[in-house]
Amino acid sequence: MVTGYAHSYDCYEAFEVARLMQEEGQPYTAFELFQMMQQEDIMPDMITLANLLSSCGDLKFLRQGKSIHAYLIRTEVQLDLVATTSLIEMYFKCNRTNQGRILFDRIEAQDVIMFNVMVSGYLQAGFTDKALETVRLMIEAGKTPNPATILILLSLSADLREMKIGKEVHAYIVRQGIGSNVDIANQLLSMFGKFGRIEIARQIFNRITRRDLVSWTSMITSYAQHAYTSEALMLFRLLVQEERLQPDLVTLVSLLQAVSGLGCLILAKEVHGHIYRNQLEKEILIINSLLTTYAKCGSIDTAEHLFKSVVKKSQVSWNTMISAFGMYGKCLEALDLFYQMLKEGFQPDDITFTSILSACSHGGYVEEGCRIFQSMVEKHSVTPNTEHYNCVIDLFSRSGQLEEAYGLVQHLPPRERISALDALLSSCRVYKNMEVGDIVGRELLKLDPNNSGTYTLLGNLYAEAGKWDAAARVREIAKAKSLARQSADITREGHFKKTSCGSPNYAAPEVLSGKLYAGPEFCGEHPYKAVPLDGGQVVACINTHAARRNLLEKGDIAKLNEWLVN
Predict the structure, then answer these.
(1) How far apart are CA 380 and CA 417, in angstroms?
(2) Are the C-beta atoms of 317 and 291 separated by less than 8 Å?
(3) SS3 sequence, 393-438?
(4) More confident residue, 31 or 305
(5) Which of 91, 168, 251, 326 could disulfide-pair with 99, CB 3.0 to 4.6 Å?
(6) What is the pLDDT of residues 454-505, one digit of tens each?
(7) Where does the record place its PPR repeats (predicted)?
(8) How far apart are CA 381 and CA 390, in angstroms?
(9) 157: part of which helix (H) or strand (E)?
(10) Under DSSP, is residue 197 helix (H, G, I), strand (E, B) or coil?
């Protein structure tokens, strides 16, 4: 059939036939037809070329797209704006933004649609600064934004977390009187919801005369994400009971994501009830979202029961449940589920290994964790990433195998070692391993010299080991860098106030217990003395006025007074 059309001169009809076959699972058919047209010297019209290039972009067929581009250059075909825009869009969708920009800059008669494609392409590629620059170019070129431009600008504002841009666009919408456009209103609603401006979002929602599912979903999600639980629940009930609208899968998944972030079990059960009544529990996307939601809402038993009831589990289902077990300390259950997953023929991916290694770490299963880590490459061809290394480093650190943990840290790129080294330094303090702790602390200070927590940990490690001079040096360096941890001070009225140790607004001596300032005679000859506090914290400064204040780092006045008296 395709060959027959290639020999005809109805190029558009031929392409339509090929496109139908492409939608039926034969994506290369359209491009085969194009090649046949070339052989027969049949010149596709602009609509055919635009559709071909659009298909290349949608399917990420960069090679085919470049082939069409090369053909156009060879034949010196002059593309119209539609086909040119499709060519630029194809390069952006195939992650070739530089090539797309080169083509854009060569066009003299750039229209609003082409600018929109550029801005949208940059946003999808994560280049928000370039997207904003393109918007400025469009305005400087005297192009009037259309509704599509407005939607892109609102999305840009939300992505950049730039309220100023959003307000300016909102003002433009009001001036132009286009706020009644439901798509624009929905995007405004979503943007203000992300900014936490719930009252403005609700005002926009109330002004929408013909609300669609997107309107309801955006408003409910905004309420849920900002802990307006009762309002979210009330609006959800209004949606399904009075408006008689049936939330689709996207709406329900979005709502469940918001609920899981909030950790609200009541709202989770309300949404689950609607899903059950409408017989949507068989949808695997819904099931996986429910598993995640119940796990994050603290109802691990419900999540487990739901998981067991699923007949056809997906990879995401297994990963979610393994992660949930590990999160709640059910490490044996996580391991059992991992091996059951392998037995049923599922191949673990990088997310699976992150979850199971984390579970092994929290459960202290060192040998099992090492075996699983080793099997990643040897049996499952999964290359360990930073998260996997961090899990195993944490596994060794928690079990006191600090040398092994430090050895693994060396496999990480320098800038990715910081979190692992930070955890390892804490473990060195727990296990009182001064040798490894000193090495780790020095490396941390080189990689992240402005992290106040590192100075605190290292200083306390030295103090506990009786190395007062080293502890003093660490604290002096931190002081010279104006680094200080935030801590809570107890005032005379019993209220807590956040302040930095040694800062000008630090609590005055008169608001604190007088015994704390009894004098330096408790120190003996050392300027520092280790003071044990709840949670294993140590405060080691008491000889100077500023140093004595460090005793209040945790606000534990009663215990400090007791120590000083004794």
Answers:
(1) 25
(2) yes
(3) HHHHHHCCCHHHHHHHHCCCCHHHCHHHHHHHHHHHHHCCCHHHHH
(4) 305
(5) 91
(6) 888 888 888 888 888 888 888 888 888 766 554 444 333 333 344 444 444 4
(7) 111-145, 212-247, 314-348, 349-383
(8) 19
(9) helix 147-160
(10) coil
CA-to-CA separations, 246 to 234, 283, 291, in angstroms, rounded: 16, 15, 22
Contact 432, 464 (CB under 8 A): yes
DSSP category for residue 520 = G
**CA 306, 312, 315 angle in degrees (round to 5)?**
85
Q: Report DSSP state, residue 527.
A: S
Mean pLDDT score, 431-455:
89
Tokens of 465: 């080991």
Q: How far apart are CA 17 and CA 30, in angstroms?
A: 8
| pLDDT at 36 (0 to 100) | 77
As a whole number of angstroms, the distance between CA 95 and CA 61 comes to 11
pLDDT of residue 314: 93
How crowded is the C-beta side of 278, counted as CA atoms within 13 Å?
18
**pLDDT at position 367 over 70:** yes
- Contact yes or no for 549/543 (Cβ under 8 A): no
- The region that residue 283 occupies, defined by phi over 0 for left and psi between -120 and 50 for alpha, beta otherwise, is beta
Angstrom distance (rounded) from CA 373 to CA 548: 47
In 10 A of CB 336, how many CB atoms? 13
Which backbone phi and psi does 541 adopt, to 5 degrees?
-120, 125
Cα 167 from Cα 188, distance rounded (Å): 10
For tokens 């695997």, the residue is 284
d(CA 558, CA 531): 13
> How far apart are alpha carbons 236 and 269 in whole angstroms?
12
Domain-wise residue ranges, the chain: 211-312, 490-566
Distance (Å) of CA 354 to CA 177, 351, 372, 390, 522: 51, 5, 11, 9, 49
Q: How far apart are CA 303 and CA 330, in angstroms?
A: 13
Give the closest residue to 254 by CA, choosing from 220, 278, 229, 280: 220
Residue 198 in this model has a pLDDT that exceeds 90: yes
3-state DSSP of 88-108: HHHHHHCCCHHHHHHHHHHCC
Q: Where are the alpha helices (DSSP H) in 242-299?
A: 249-262, 265-277, 284-296
Name the DSSP letter for residue 530. E
Q: Which residues, 6+ apart, have CB-to-CB distance to 77 below 8 Å?
A: 43, 49
Cα(301)–Cα(278) distance, rounded to whole angstroms?
A: 23
Q: Of 458, 463, 465, 484, which Cα lies nearest the Cα of 552?
A: 484
Instruction: Mention every residue, 6+ apart, whose C-beta is less than 8 A from residue 368.
Output: 335, 360
pLDDT at 16: 63
Q: Is the distance from CB of 261 to CB of 229 less than 8 angstroms?
A: no
- In the predicted structure, residue 394 carries a pLDDT above the cut 60: yes
- The angle subtended at Cα 252 by Cα 250 and Cα 255, nearest 5°, is 105
Answer for the pair 89, 83: CB distance below 8 angstroms, yes or no: no
Residue 436 token pair: 């490894």
CA pair distance 493, 557, nearest whole angstrom: 14
Tokens for 113?
């649609």
pLDDT beyond 80 at 31? no
Decide: residue 489, CB within 10 A, 0-12 exposed, 13-18 middle, 19+ buried.
buried
